Amino acid sequence: MSAATYAVPSSGFRLSKEHLAVAVPVAVIAAAGGFLVSHYLNRRSCKKGQVNTCVHKDSPKVVHSFDMEDIGTKAVYCRCWKSKKFPYCDGAHTKHNEETGDNVGPLIIKKKDA
Ligand code: FES
After folding, report:
1. Does 91 lie in the same domain as 74?
2. Which atom, in ligand 1's list, is nearest to the CA of 106?
3. Strands 74-77 and 5-8, sheet pairing
4. Of the candidates 5, 12, 56, 75, which lies 20 to 30 Å from 45 by C-alpha distance?
């Protein structure tokens, strides 16, 4: 074995210094590329998992507030984020549940005797 050759013991595998000079940077670039692609794909899949797909998407946070006195005897609020009348339920959760196998439904607030 010459001084410029590196051997893996008992494998018969040998690399010259010139091959190592190419192989090491290629391995480092491949590892960095794999990490970046994995990181990018993970971020995309998180976005796909958003609950709110259509309600006030131009707003950084969707918040509604109601005074108890204004609710009346009964109010039905959407929890599936599919209602065209959000924040009120319009029954869109039924189609969502049929299509996805989910089991979401509205929040119903009513007076005890209503
Ligand atoms: S439409 Fe969303 S819970 Fe009914």
Report:
1. yes
2. 3
3. unpaired
4. 56
Provide the whole-model pTM: 0.57
Say if ligand 1 is within 6 A of residue 82 CB: yes
The reply to whether 28 and 64 lie within a common domain is: no
Establish if 1 belongs to a structural domain: no
Clarify whether residues 60 and 74 are in a common domain: yes
Amino acid identity of residue 95, one-letter, is K
Q: Is 86 in the pocket of ligand 1 (CB under 6 A)?
A: no
Give 26-68 pLDDT, tens digit per residue. Answer: 888 888 888 777 766 555 544 567 899 889 999 999 999 999 9
Indicate which residue of 57, 61, 111, 112 is catalytic.
Answer: 61
Query: DSSP secondary-structure letter at 82?
Result: -
The domain of 78 spans 51-113
Task: Tell me the backbone φ, ψ of residue 106, rounded to 5 degrees.
Answer: -80, 170
